[in-house]
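REQUEST ID: PR-0412
SUBMITTED BY: lab tech R.K.
PRIORITY: routine
TASK: structure prediction, single protein chain
INPUT:
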Amino acid sequence: MKHSLLLTALLIPFTATAAEQTFDFKDPKGVNHATFLLDAPLETITGTANGVSGSLTIDPEKPEETKGAITIDAKTLNVENDTMKEHLLGADWMDVEKHPSISFTVSGLEDFEMKDGTATANVKGKFSVKGVEKEISVPAKVTLLPDKLGARTGGKMEGDLLVIRTEFTIKRTDYGINPGAPTDKVSDEVVIKLAIAGASPK
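STATUS: complete
OUTPUT:
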């Protein structure tokens, strides 16, 4: 019974569009982005990445079977310090020449809940960084905005928006990202935040 109530709650924001929908996260405006934080005792590293693409397909009747993938162009990773950026993109860190993308392939949703018009769920899938792929589950807030694509595009396109916000932590050494770096200067924990909107044109 509890599962049924939570599932019903998740469906509320999707009632305006009962059919299966695919949302495209390639944003021509470049607004979609990710941020990352490594907060070590001696040094804090913060940065961004804006090369977001991918798509998610959601069936309102079976949201737990949501599928798709979100990809970040690793070459768009950026920090303010030029030398640090060169190291970040280089072989010891992200090795973007050999591994040009970071991806999260979604296999489904679980633990649905609804509060203040926004659905929350744990998103399951495979997170791939620098050639290493691991199964993870991350919390996310998902908001459907029916007929708001026009407002985002200045009236050039009509349709719906799907806004996803998530924050999760990975271990740098789990993915072979400069594993020899001293943890007092380079935190092993990397906090990743994602704020993206996907478009479903009509």
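NOTES: Confidence is low (pLDDT under 50) at residues 1-17.
REVIEWED BY: pending
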